[in-house]
Specification:
2 domains, 14 strands, 7-stranded mixed beta sheet, DNA binding, alpha+beta, Arc Repressor Mutant, subunit A, D-Maltodextrin-Binding Protein, domain 2, 3-stranded mixed beta sheet
Length: 305
């Protein structure tokens, strides 16, 4: 007879595999090997008598039965975790916090902030998903997600943490080769590197409400790639100031049109609506608010410390 423990192990392995997209991703969250996770899911399928996942060498997809089962059991696992979380105290929280952050936020800000939080609460662990993809917070099992810019309507709670300005910049080598733009209109005659959202180039936007979609040699959905391409002299970028504050200070990038009013965007932290946040995630959200109060991301001109 299958024990309750074995049933729970298979259930957790299945839900975490779906949420993380692979056995390897689930293994990092669970703390077991990918092969152990795979075997747990296989035993669950054998016990249920149905195939829940279609496996290939590269991907894992839910079957119709698997999708129905996931929709039924994922909330049960979440409820169990929330019940356990209520027993934790704010003095010594423990457990995993899953956070999705944009690439530039992850590399420039979040790494140091997560490290500071762990020093304060050493029994907490992080799963940081650093991506410019808009993740499905609920389906993929995230506690929190940071977003830059105007938010679409969704079934998520949003807390505004602060603002960041977007500035134009290019490398000294590019500007010596092509010249310094003196107006927004001049950008149409330059190579402009573009950030892609849902496969479309995001406009260069300004404080007066105007925007342009200039041409350029590189489009990418990765903010860090955009920054590095600009440093290498490929063209002009519009990017959050905090992401290139260190480059501006070092002279590897030069700000363009510094007196022209640039777009200022809000930064929000999101979490699922109607769901009780774990104590550890709630404390980290408060910690993020503290960090944003200490930083002026709109006027930042030096590397964050």
């Amino acid at each position: 007879m299958t024990t309750i423990m074995e049933k729970t192990t298979g259930l957790v392995a299945f839900v975490r595999t779906v949420q993380n997209g692979s056995f390897a991703g689930a293994s990092r969250v669970i703390g077991a090997s990918p092969s152990a996770v795979s075997k747990s899911v296989a035993r669950l399928e054998e016990r249920l008598g149905v195939r829940l996942l279609q496996r290939s060498t590269r991907t894992i997809r839910l079957t119709l039965e698997g999708a129905d089962y996931f929709e039924r059991v994922a909330p049960l696992l979440q409820a169990l975790e929330e019940a356990e979380n209520q027993l934790q105290t704010t003095e010594m929280p423990q457990g995993l916090i899953r956070v999705s952050v944009p690439v530039l936020v992850g590399r420039v800000l979040m790494a140091q902030w997560a490290a500071k939080f762990i020093l304060r609460y050493p029994r907490v662990k992080f799963d940081l998903d650093v991506t410019d993809r808009n993740v499905d917070i609920i389906r993929e099992g995230f506690d929190l997600a940071l977003r830059i810019g105007t938010l679409p309507d969704s079934g998520l709670n949003a807390r505004m943490l602060g603002n960041t300005s977007h500035i134009l910049a290019a490398s000294p080598t590019y500007l010596s080769r092509r010249g310094m733009p003196l107006s927004v209109g001049d950008l149409q005659h330059h190579d402009c590197l573009r950030f892609l959202i849902a496969g479309r180039p995001f406009p260069y936007a300004f404080a007066d409400g105007g925007s342009i979609v200039p041409e350029g040699p590189i489009d990418t959905s990765d903010g860090a790639t955009l920054r590095q391409a600009a440093i290498e002299g490929a063209g002009i970028i519009q990017i959050p100031r905090f992401a290139i504050a260190e480059d501006i200070a070092a002279g590897t990038l030069i700000q363009i049109l510094p007196t022209f009013p640039m777009l200022i965007s809000p930064i929000h932290v999101l979490h699922p609506f109607g769901r009780q946040l774990p104590v550890r995630a709630r404390l980290f959200m408060e910690f993020l608010a503290e960090q944003f109060q200490e930083k002026n991301l709109v006027e930042m001109t030096a590397p964050p410390r």
